[in-house]
Design brief:
The chain has about 625 residues and is an alpha/beta fold. Helix 6 crosses helix 7. The radius of gyration is 24 Å and the shape is globular. The protein contains 19 helices and 30 strands. It has a 7-stranded mixed beta sheet, with helices on both faces. Strands 7-6-8-11-12 form a 5-stranded parallel beta sheet, with helices on both faces. A 4-stranded antiparallel beta sheet has the order 21-22-24-25. It has 2 domains: about 400 residues, ANL, N-terminal domain (Rossmann fold), CATH 3.40.50; about 130 residues, ANL, C-terminal domain (GMP Synthetase, Chain A, domain 3). The protein binds adenosine-5'-monophosphate-propyl ester. Adenosine-5'-monophosphate-propyl ester binds next to helix 10, strand 20, strand 24 and strand 25.
């Protein structure tokens, strides 16, 4: 790769300086760009670590995403193009989307959903998923989407945390022609989660599934005679739009709560800056709506802008390796947003599949979820963007609600640099600090922090203010702790260096090592478990598991299968380890902490390298001795 120098432009520096030093004025102007029923009284009420953005303002997300477009030319343009693996399609104009959302909102009301309720969605990538989200928030309820790859146990844990009474699901999801039995998973989950009294069932297929009378209601029946207009419920800016569970460093996932006003304002602005989105854009984000990217990038931000969205249900390489490129060509996609994992998979199969398609409609290409290595960046730029489209590598998290560090071609502010997420977006005061919270000089690895509240930030962890405070606001005084490592280069560009905590990114999916370890020790034969990530050329990271068996058990393949199965049923198939090792002992510090860096060095077949006390407080000798011992044990 050619070594080029890229500096933040003078315009960026000035824009950013103004946005940060006059932050409330800056965000107030941004807030004026979305529709409100009542203007806010205060831009920001900040009682660290709790932020109330646009306090006193009233709005409705469903109104902003749909109704607001009905008085313009957008009324009859396509809001959603949906397509499945087999090429079946559906499309909905804004006015049709309005009708579907209203009918379902009316049905939800009839079955007793009221403002403040939480509705759980466990759905495949079908248009009804978007209808369900928007119908829920139209009547002032809050949605919790659970990724449909999660198992019944994981679904039950999330339902139990919310205490939800209503759940929306489908009979099956379809992937690689396989039917994923969503309704059956729900039935099993509800045995463990009795709060749910009503299940709305969407028929995705013709196949029969179990229906529990009195509890399960058919979506098609509910909407048949439903009203076609339901007044949107104006909610306070701080009213929770959604709760999304994400992995943390304990076995228990955290319910990340996002506001309505701050979240929508933030996403509205950042999609303009980063993707230059407009009502003429055909926007395709390939994420699943079950993750935060799907919430912001498939539903809320593009619809707020009146764009056309693509929803594709299926695997990227099925039935052919050019499925995605075919879709881009067919619908004239202008903005494409995907993950490095998917790109790395395509790179392995060469460019012929891509060359079959005319991708000239593309204007901006995005990447999210994990670091994009410069080689993949260059490939994306050359073969998908034909050296015409800027690549926006967007760094953010479930907790941040929206993109935080990214180029902003919509503002023409930031020269790109392959492999770097470039610079913080306007109004985002990001920095890299050492263990004491002091800014580090360029070229030094440190912790990524955010030093000022921003409108998209989480309001908290559901029902757990203490965990919220401890996880994000205790490591450094007055700073939001991202738990990511980063480094700034000499031009001030940010380079993301992976998680600083015990969270893995497997094919872009966020998984806590503690979640997997607790699924393993829940089996009758495992005494202890430790999980580490191993670098993988396609998935970024894969899971490697070390298990100490209880005394009566001897290692064998059946036990291995059993343990993997337990992870699949307790979390989901995507959390299954790629390698499992039975060991007699794990390398631990004197205080009992597992020294994961030793395990990591071993799975990568590398020396222990630079030994610092940064990670676990173990002494240098302790680490070196344990490393040698553990290596000998594994070999023996
Ligand atoms: O480690 C960072 C990584 O993904 C984490 C957040 O995961 P999640 O909450 O699932 O949200 C993912 C989609 C927004 C971060 O802490 N991450 C996300 N984007 C990038 C990234 N790492 C490097 N570069 C990125 N662009």
């Amino acid at each position: 790769m050619e070594a080029k120098k890229y500096y933040p432009t003078k315009r960026y520096i000035e824009f950013q300086k103004n946005a940060i030093s006059n932050s409330e004025i800056f965000w107030e102007k941004e807030a004026e760009k979305i529709p409100w029923y009542k203007r806010w009284d205060k831009v920001l009420a900040w009682e660290e670590p709790f932020a109330k953005w646009f306090e006193g303002g009233l709005l409705n997300a469903s109104y902003g995403c749909i109704d607001a477009h009905l008085n313009s030319w957008r009324k009859n343009k396509v809001a959603i193009y949906w397509e499945d693996e087999q090429g079946n399609t559906k499309s909905f104009s804004y006015v049709q989307l309005h009708r579907e959302v209203n009918k379902f909102a009316s049905a939800l009301k009839k079955i007793g959903v009221v403002k403040g309720d939480i509705v759980v969605l466990y759905l495949p990538m079908i248009p009804e998923l978007v209808f369900s989200m928007l119908a829920t928030v139209r009547i002032g309820a809050t949605h919790t989407v659970v990724f449909s790859g999660f198992s019944s146990q994981a679904l039950a844990d999330r339902i139990n945390d919310t205490g939800a009474k209503v759940l929306i699901t489908a009979d099956f999801g379809i992937r690689r022609e396989k039917y994923v039995p969503l309704k059956e998973i729900v039935d099993n989950a509800l045995k463990l989660a009795p709060s749910v009294k009503k299940v709305v069932l969407i028929k995705r297929t013709e196949k029969e599934v179990n229906k529990e009378s009195g509890r399960d209601l058919l979506y098609s029946e509910l909407v048949k005679d439903a009203e076609t207009y339901v007044e949107p419920e104006p909610v306070e800016s701080t009213h929770p739009l959604y709760i999304l569970y994400t992995s943390g460093t304990t076995g228990k996932p955290k319910g990340i709560v996002h506001s309505t006003g701050g979240y929508l304002v933030y996403n509205h602005s950042t999609y303009k800056w980063v993707f230059d989105i407009s009502d003429e854009s055909v926007y395709w984000c390939t994420a699943d709506v079950g993750w935060v990217t799907g919430h912001s990038a498939i539903v809320y931000a593009p619809l707020l802008h009146g764009a056309t969205i693509i929803i594709y249900e299926g695997a990227p390489d099925y039935p052919y390796l050019d499925r995605w490129w075919e879709i881009i060509e067919k619908y004239g996609v202008t903005i494409f947003y995907t993950s490095p994992t998917a790109l790395r998979m395509f790179i392995r199969h060469g460019e012929d599949w891509i060359k079959k398609h005319d991708l000239r409609s593309l204007k901006i290409l995005g990447s999210v979820g994990e670091p994009i290595n410069p080689e993949v960046w260059e490939w994306y730029y050359k073969y998908i963007g034909n050296e015409r489209c800027p690549i926006v590598d967007t760094w953010w998290q479930t907790e941040t609600g929206g993109m935080m560090i990214s180029p902003s071609p919509g503002l023409e502010l930031v020269p790109l640099k392959p492999g770097s997420a470039t610079l913080p977006l306007p109004g985002i005061d990001a920095d890299v600090v050492d263990d004491s919270g002091n800014s580090v000089s360029h070229g030094t690895k440190g912790y990524l922090v955010i030093k000022k509240p921003w409108p998209g930030m989480l309001m908290g962890v559901y029902k757990d203010p203490v965990r919220y405070k401890e996880t994000y606001w205790s490591k450094f005084k007055g700073m939001y702790y991202t738990a990511d490592y980063a480094m700034k280069d000499e031009e001030g560009y940010f380079w993301m260096l992976g998680r600083a905590d015990e969270i893995l990114k497997v094919a872009g999916h966020r998984i806590g090592t503690a979640e997997i370890e607790s699924a393993v020790v829940a089996t009758p034969f495992a005494a202890e478990a430790a999980v580490v990530g191993k670098a993988d050329a396609v998935k970024g990271e894969v899971i490697v598991l070390f298990v100490i068996l209880k005394e009566d058990y001897k290692p064998d393949d059946d036990l291995k299968k059993n343990i993997i199965n337990s992870i699949r049923t307790q979390i989901g198939p995507f959390a299954a380890p790629q390698e499992v090792y039975f060991v007699e002992k794990l390398p631990k510090t004197r205080s009992g902490k597992i020294m994961r860096r030793i395990l990591k060095a071993i799975v990568h077949d590398k020396p222990i390298g630079d030994v610092t006390t940064l990670e676990d407080g173990a002494s240098v000798d302790e680490i070196k001795t344990s490393y040698e011992e553990f290596k000998r044990m594994l070999k023996g």
